[in-house]
Specification:
Length: about 190
């Protein structure tokens, strides 16, 4: 559990001086997802490509200090792979949540590294990335859930602010999750 705290602290350090750009991109990402959410079909179409693009932008921002907002739409260049991964993850998680909530959380944790894997390997298919994520998370789902749970206070605070807090929270959670991925994949973050 102390490792999760270190992951969160590192995420804050990585975002230091970059919060404004991260928040602007998060605002665009969340607004597009919300607009797409008004029609369920459109939400399924854009979720994967936009999430992949958001992860790319955040990764580039914290690793290179480059504010390339065009990366948000990079997932559309790999549309089939990002769409398939996003659709399957959404359907599996949704079905798991309908069944008893806990299966949905397990599925969500199992597939959580999919887009990070796709960022690292531009040639991997969405389904192969999902499979690799599931294997990578074997024995680590509880650790990721505990990391996510550490954000519960921030999530509640973001809800109290009528959702405005999410434009800062989304990048923070994404960088923390990216650090979790890098710890699993490379042994360090």
């Amino acid at each position: 559990m102390n490792e999760n705290l270190a992951i969160m602290r590192r995420a804050k350090q990585q975002l230091d001086g970059k919060w404004v750009n991260a928040a602007i991109d998060a605002l665009i990402y969340l607004a597009l997802c919300s607009l797409a959410g008004s029609t369920s079909i459109l939400e399924f179409v854009v979720y994967g490509p936009l999430t992949f693009g958001f992860y790319l932008f955040i990764g580039c921002l914290v690793d290179t200090n480059v504010n390339n907002f065009n990366l948000l739409f990079k997932g559309f260049e790999r549309f089939v792979d990002t769409f398939v991964a996003g659709l399957l993850i959404s359907l599996a998680t949704g079905l798991g949540l309908i069944l008893l909530i806990v299966p949905g959380i397990i599925v969500s944790c199992g597939f959580a590294m999919t887009f990070f894997i796709m960022m690292d390997d531009p040639n991997i298919s969405g389904i192969d990335a999902m499979s690799e994520s599931w294997n990578m998370m074997r024995g680590h789902k509880w650790d990721l859930f505990c990391l996510w749970f550490r954000f519960i206070g921030w999530i509640l605070l973001s809800i109290i602010t009528c959702g405005i807090g999410f434009i800062f929270l989304q990048p923070y959670i994404t960088v923390a999750q990216m650090n979790f991925y890098r710890k699993l994949k490379y042994g360090t973050f």
